[in-house]
Amino acid sequence: MRIAMIGTGYVGLVSGACFSEFGVDVVCVDKDAAKIEGLHANRMPIYEPGLDALVADNVKGGRLSFTTDLKSAVSGADAVFIAVGTPSRRGDGHADLSYVYDAAREIAQSLTGYTVVVTKSTVPVGTGREVERIIRETRPDADFDVVSNPEFLREGSAINDFMRPDRVVIGAETDRARAVMKQLYRVLYLIETPIVFTSLETSELIKYAANTFLAAKITFINEIADLCEAVGADVHDVARGIGLDGRIGKKFLHPGPGYGGSCFPKDTLALVRTARDKGAPLRIIETVVAINDERKRKMADKVVAACAGSVEGKSIAVLGLTFKPNTDDMRDSPSLEIIPALQKAGASIRAFDPEGMEEARHMFSGVTFCENAYETLQSADAMVVLTEWNEFRALDFERVKSLLRAPILVDLRNIYNPADMVAAGFQYVSIGRPTPK
Ligand code: NAD
């Protein structure tokens, strides 16, 4: 089997590398010549644990290659995956499908023989049909089917998620297309991964329903955490107490500063738009979006409150900038809201992130970027944990205290034990947990 992967970002590069590991011949295509040039030198355009080794192995094995030439990659391929970005359209929250439709037009011009064109990008219901229409209009003679195969991998554990997924969802409407997809995912069939075959529209909706459900689950536990603070309860015990119920499940019950990242914010907004346009509004998700937006602002207020009600003229040390650990992805990270809010309240910000700084430098102004956690804490009036990177979990707290001007620690990811922090002499604030006196 031979496939072309159009778009070599977080999803395209990981999916392409994993398919090549499954034994498929993969050509990854990107418009961004610098990305492709880097990949030729085994320089990864993103930080994802294990990706460089996986790519190097499969390039060496002759199953994985990179190009900017879409035409050569598509002609003769059994399947062409569209894995380009679908960001929020400025102004209305709809998914911007221009990259997908541009790719479809380019693909159409290069099709030879029967080809399955697969949308791997997260796309609203109806996009697959439109891709089909565009290809048909551009190339009335082409022999092809359009399939929806949304991706559920998570940044930071993307390779394992792709290789051992909970399920694979395939929206395909002909036996020929289903046969090609089965062959591509043969390795996962062998390990009995559940494969959900369904229609194009249903497959497209499954992806949004999954992401918005997860966003709602996070938002639920965040609100319960706020209530815990108000009544003196412990949100982690609540999460465990409810999560052990199989109908609820343990995962995604960790409170924090609000969800962020390149998927949940844009996908919740896009589904809200689709639902409104179709006259079937999703009021739960609309509320989730509003609560999450407000939450990020509230987190800045929490820091201000911990600093005796004012950060005017104070220096705040921020540890972690990415929306979660083990990625360099800064898209829609809570830090992008919380840091400017603190600056607006008069604080100066010192910050460090293990992988996100290169991106972050373009996204903030007036922030002092530091080389490591300890340098960040130097003479700061408070320490704020925004991302739960492992290296922040085991700091030397005597050193931390000696570096800070005041021992104020605001932990927006609950990575420390409140009793330990109080015993170590910190004024410790976390989310949804009582701090011992
Ligand atoms: P990304 O921005 O990292 O990568 C997209 C790539 O596509 C870029 O490198 C861009 O240069 C390239 N591109 C755009 N148009 C092109 C064209 N016509 N020809 C060749 N290359 C082109 O995006 P991503 O994070 O990989 O997301 C891709 C899609 O997958 C989105 O729809 C997203 O919602 C979805 N998704 C993302 C994740 C995630 O964790 N990032 C998880 C599941 C699904």
From TrEMBL:
Its EC number is 1.1.1.22. Pathway: Nucleotide-sugar biosynthesis; UDP-alpha-D-glucuronate biosynthesis; UDP-alpha-D-glucuronate from UDP-alpha-D-glucose: step 1/1. NAD(+) binds at residues 30, 35, 86, 122, 155, 266, 331. The active site is at residue 263. GO terms for biological process: polysaccharide biosynthetic process; UDP-glucuronate biosynthetic process. It catalyses: UDP-alpha-D-glucose + 2 NAD(+) + H2O = UDP-alpha-D-glucuronate + 2 NADH + 3 H(+). The keyword NAD applies. Keywords: NAD, Oxidoreductase. It holds the Pfam family UDPG_MGDP_dh_C. Signal peptide: none annotated. It is an enzyme of class 1 (oxidoreductase). SMART domains: UDPG_MGDP_dh_C. It comes from the Bacteria. InterPro entries: 6-PGluconate_DH-like_C_sf (IPR008927), NAD(P)-bd_dom_sf (IPR036291), UDP-Glc/GDP-Man (IPR017476), UDP-Glc/GDP-Man_DH_C (IPR014027), UDP-Glc/GDP-Man_DH_C_sf (IPR036220), UDP-Glc/GDP-Man_DH_dimer (IPR014026), UDP-Glc/GDP-Man_DH_N (IPR001732), UDPglc_DH_bac (IPR028357). Residues 317-418 form the UDP-glucose/GDP-mannose dehydrogenase C-terminal domain. Substrate binds at residues 152-155, 207, 252-256, 260, 324. PROSITE patterns: PROKAR_LIPOPROTEIN. One of its GO terms (molecular function) is NAD binding. The keyword Ribonucleoprotein does not apply. Belongs to the UDP-glucose/GDP-mannose dehydrogenase family. This is UDP-glucose 6-dehydrogenase. It comes from Telmatospirillum siberiense.
